[in-house]
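The authors assume throughout that readers already know how a fold can be written as discrete tokens. A single example would do more here than another paragraph of explanation. An entry of this sort, consisting of the sequence and the corresponding backbone structure tokens, reads as follows:
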Amino acid sequence: MTDQTTEPRPTLEAVAARAGVSRATVSRVVNGGDGVREPLVERVRQAVEELGYVPNQAARSLVTRRHDAVAVVIAEPETRVFADPFFALQLRGISKELTAHDSQLVLLLTEGRDDHARVGRYLAGGHVDGALVFSLHLDDPLPGLIHGVPTVYGGRPGWSDGTRGAVYVDSDNRGGAREAVRHLVGLGRRRVAHITGALDQTSAVDRLDGFRDVMVDADPKLIAEGDFTPAGGERAMRELLGRCPDLDAVFAANDLTAAGALRVLRERGRRVPEDVAVIGFDDMLPVTEQTDPPLTTVRQDIEEMGRLMARLLLRGLDRTVSAGASGGLVGAPSSVVLPTTLVRRASA
């Protein structure tokens, strides 16, 4: 057995000696502080590179009050998260933005009520700088549990327990739904049905409202509740065909729902779009380009939504630290609602 020795980790003092500056100057440069002249900054950076200095994260956090970590909380069970490409696209956008700012993503999922309490305790414990929370349901207790933690929400909040001033990123769900239904009407369809998403989420409610904006006198039998899943789309499509066999168009609340509806229509011998035109919502390419026929849908930029969520949180955190405040976001930017566009393919 041979003895192995390891070189001691370079210290701030070693960097200061190499750069010919004080320890305090090195600390300000390493921790992103102001007030250091550019020539000295360059000398410190060169010394850091030459020595291979790596800041001690615990000590750095004491100085900056930042952990360089952000929690991403998805209020869905993991079976749903890993089966739905929507979440992968949003996480990709979040991850790209956090990586660009040298911040770590901490993924938290909520399977049930016990998980809500666990996540709430973790966030309140100060392990991360803030949270990005999406796919919340109206009865979700998380907003109350994470009160005081800097947070940006994915989707317009629909609850009223102190989150009225919440910062969020959303798409124009209602406007996108209107455009989809107007397109179906413009094709000459008169018995237009709607398969909703989970109606305890604001995106589903907004899309239902957009449908009703156009189909003002729609027969209530032409509306069936889904849950944003293929199985929910199949179930609702069977229900609709049983109640309204003469329907000639379907607007589905998302692409996965539309994919389920298409399978049932094919089973029942209904041609798409000749007999029944179908439109989805999201434009998730892993889904829309693999349906038969390719799916006409409303596009929302899911990856950009994730990127913007992270960007808004990081900007707010920077302002909060600069102001010397704690809890919440100081001077947080306004919420953002992204536009949607109709993408025409073969299904409608």
Summary: The two ends are 73 Å apart (CA to CA).
